[in-house]
Design brief:
Protein name: Major facilitator superfamily (MFS) profile domain-containing protein
Largest sheet: none
GO molecular function: transmembrane transporter activity
Strand content: under 5%
InterPro entries: MFS_dom (IPR020846), MFS_trans_sf (IPR036259)
Structural class: mainly alpha
Shape: elongated
Keywords: Membrane, Transmembrane, Transmembrane helix
Number of helices: 3
Number of strands: 0
Amino acid sequence: MVTIGRLSDMFGRVKLYNLGFAIFAIGSTILYAITYLFTGTTAVLLMIIFRLV
């Protein structure tokens, strides 16, 4: 939390909030698309990887 506070002071709270929201939105969209594009083990592995984001 200390690191995020320092980054927030350097770059601005709103910019970091928007960046976090964008990363979350992109990750959620990818997880949604994986279920339709891939099947089996590949889908499971990709879902695990993108959930870490």
